[in-house]
Structure formats: structure tokens, C-alpha cells
Amino acid sequence: MLWEAAEFLEAAGGSLEGAVPAEISGISIDSRTIRPGEAFVAIKGERFDGHDYVEAALQAGAALAIVSVDRREGISGGPLLVVEDDPLDALTRLAVAARERSRAKIVAVTGSVGKTGTKEMLRLGLSAIGSTHAPVGSFNNHWGVPLTLARLPADADFGIFEIGMNHAGEITPLTEMVRPHAAIITTVEAVHIEYFDSVEAIADAKAEIFDGLEPRGAAILNRDNAQFERLSRRAGEVGARIVSFGENPNADVSLVGSMADAEGTRLTVDVYGETVQYRLGAPGRHLAANSLAVLAAAYVFEANIKTVADALSAFKAPAGRGDRHRLSCDGGVITLVDESYNANPASMRAAIALLRDAKPGEGGRRIAVLGDMGELGHRARDLHVALADDLADAKADQVFLVGPLMHDLWEVLPEGARGAYARDAGELEPILVKALRAGDVVVVKASNATGLGRLVQAIKDRFPPTGAKDES
């Protein structure tokens, strides 16, 4: 049981039409995946209106549906909870009530990159020591955060929330709803720079996460980031306790040593004077850095740090954010690293660093498949061209590029590194698949709108897995 019906109805508000069961087992906004006993909230998204799917949700066994009075007419079946305002407002009221009744220790995560991976590491680590609630996928916006919060079980020991933004002012109402005891900012980079005057302005927007921080709460900040002092000052203004992490030896949680391989990273970390050694089950310097933030949260929550750290050996990069596949090819194996979910200058550099650290098989090559990065405004050309230095450092043997913005990078690449350029993913697909051979390591990275997920699927369709997916 997630909610008692009476408690649910009181929190959501509105007028009930029909009879509801005594217990509500969950909350859903998707009629395709709703399970019997869950409440369906008919929110309006960018491409859909949940009111159009109320009857389907009820037929699937929904305990009730929350609908707006303006859309009540024409909906048959029930039970219905009819609200005077928007169903999203009712969901927000449920979220506030869920937070009010909770005694969980709450951590919120934001940052220009690394939010979802850090959230998943927190889920793994904290689950090793108590009942832990976290969002499904990247539910980090104006509906994802209240949905995740409304789903918070009353008896959870820990709650994890991911909070995103691309404009100033978006984080404040979300963090004031979540009211975290600890707030992590993974890093601040030139992401969504189209909507900001400077990286400093982005830092100020990320610092809104401190607006909802509980009294005596902790701000967990990346000491290696250029915006550390700025963020520290902002956190200090609300009375937050500053806990730093990073490679900087002065960090409270500092990296002492690391050894990476194709399957993960072995780390030695100093946590306020205590040495902790553990293995992170996925490679990548950026992932290793964010694992330090997880240990910092464990310290803040007075948890067993070694237990939390040991749990991170099971961490796998989320789909589209660095998950790896070993694919069969005549005479050997192709290693595919799928970073196709999203991209910005910082995460693009991190993905290229993965290529640099990779070890191709015999006769294999380091291959980068890159697509346009969005929301960079007038700096778009310079930020795309700057990737040439990273690719050279990574010793990329072949570079395949997609999108109009990537043409600027194409023009500055050495002739020998040019694989192919195309305006769209469909045009590049047959060229890329034909070019691959045994031993290759292929990293695919782009903003989601570029559609490189299509290329990832085409590669996987052409070259079958060697067995199970590589879980490194």
C-alpha cells in the first residue's frame, strides 16, 4: 500500500465520483503501464493530454482517475476525482503531503551532467543500508519530481530526487517541495548556455537547490569545479554545511588513487580522514568522481560508508548514458559504448575520454560517432570545433559526425581521422555499419534530438551480442 484512500483524497482535494478501494497501491501518469489499484493522474504533457486516456486507464484497473472539471464531460466510467484546477496541481498536493508524512533522509541531485548516474549510485549505495526510494529514469522536471515525491512510501528510510533545469527559476519550486537534507551539485558547465549569459549564471540557477534545504542541511559540492567557491558562498547564505568532494586533496571526500580498466574503476578515497577502498562497476573518470558525492551523502547521513561503497561494485551505466555492449563480428568482437541519450560539452568530453582509455582488440580502432549538441546559442560553433583537441588526445582513429553543427568540427579534423559526415542519422547509418570491423571500440554520443539512438540500434541489429550484454 502506498496511500490509504482517505488520506489520498484529502491530500489531492477535489470531488469524488464513485467508490474507491480502501488502499491506493501506486500513482501513474501512463495508461499503457498502469497496474490495477493505482491512481491515474491525467496530466497534460507536451505531446499528449492524459484526459484522452482516462477510460483506458480505468479499464486497465486503475483505482481512480484524477481529472480536471473542465475535461470531465465526455469521460465515461469511474471512479473519478474531479479537481477544480489542473490534475498536476493535485499531484503536487499529494507530493507535499507525502513529504510531510515522511521521516526519510532526503537527498536531491542536480548539476550540468551526471545527475542520473549519481542518482543510480545513490540508489545502490543507500539500498544497502535501508529502504530507498528513487525516481524511475530521469524524472527531474515539473511533473517528474512531484510524481516521484507522491510515490514516496511513508516508511522509506531514504529518498533520492533528481532535479533538472534549463532556465533560471525552475529548481526553486521543486527543491522547496522536496526539502532535502542533503543537496548534491555534481558540476557546473556550459550546458543550456543558450538561455544564460554566462556559466556563472548557470551556477546561480543550480544553487537554487539550496532554497529548499532543510535547516542544518548539507551542500555537497565538487571542489574540482571552477564554480565551487561561488556555490559555497550561496550555500553559506542559507546556513548549509559545506561538504566537498573531488580530486583536490583539500576536499572533505578526496580521491587518493584510482585504477581503471574496461570493466570499471578501483578507487581509494579519503572520507574525512578515513580511507575507503572500493570498486565502481563501470569505467569513466566522471562516474568515479560522482561516486565520491555518494560517499559524502553517506557521511552526512551517518551511514556505514564502507557498506555504501562496496555496493557500488554493482553499478552499471544507465541505458544511453555509457552502457556497454560486446557484439559478435567476423573474427572477433566489437565493443559499443552507448552515450546516445544526451550531450553537452562536458559530457561529450567525458565520452571521448572513455574512448581514450579504451583498448581496442587486435586490428581494431577507436571510433567516435558524434552528433550535434543542443542549446549552446552563439557559442555552438566554437564548442563543437573545440572537440577536435579532445579527439586528438583520445587518439581517435576514425570519427563519424552527424548534424549541421558537427560540420564545423568535420572541417578541422585531420584527413586521416575522417570516417564520414552526414546531415542526419539515417544517411550515416549504412556507411557506419559497413565500416565497422572486429576489434573496434565505438563510442556514440549526441543530444537526443539528433537521433543517434537509431545508429546504436542499427549496430546492434547488424552485430549480435556475444551472449549477454556486457555489464561493465
Radius of gyration (Å): 23 Å
- Any low-confidence stretches, pLDDT <50, length ≥5? 468-472
**CATH-defined superfamily of the largest domain:** Mur-like, catalytic domain
Oligomer: single chain
Q: Helical amount among residues, as a percent range? A: 25-40%
Question: Class by helix and strand content?
Answer: alpha/beta
**Number of DSSP strands?**
22
The pLDDT mean sits at 94
Largest pleated sheet: 9 strands, mixed
Q: What is the CATH top level name of the largest domain? A: Alpha Beta
**How many independent structural domains?**
3
Percent of residues in β-strands: 15-25%
Tell me the span between the first and last alpha carbons. 36 Å
Neighbour order of strands in the largest sheet: 9-10-8-11-12-13-14-15-16
Can you put this structure into words, describing what you see?
The chain has 472 residues and is of the alpha/beta class. The protein has three domains: 88 residues, 3-Layer(aba) Sandwich (Udp-n-acetylmuramoylalanyl-d-glutamate--2,6- Diaminopimelate Ligase, Chain: A, domain 1); 213 residues, UDP-N-acetylmuramoyl-L-alanine:D-glutamate ligase (3-Layer(aba) Sandwich), CATH 3.40.1190.10; 140 residues, Mur ligase, C-terminal domain (Protein-Tyrosine Phosphatase, Chain A). The protein has 16 helices and 22 strands. It has a nine-stranded mixed sheet with strand order 9-10-8-11-12-13-14-15-16, with helices on both faces. Strands 17-18-22-19-20-21 form a six-stranded mixed sheet, with helices on both faces.
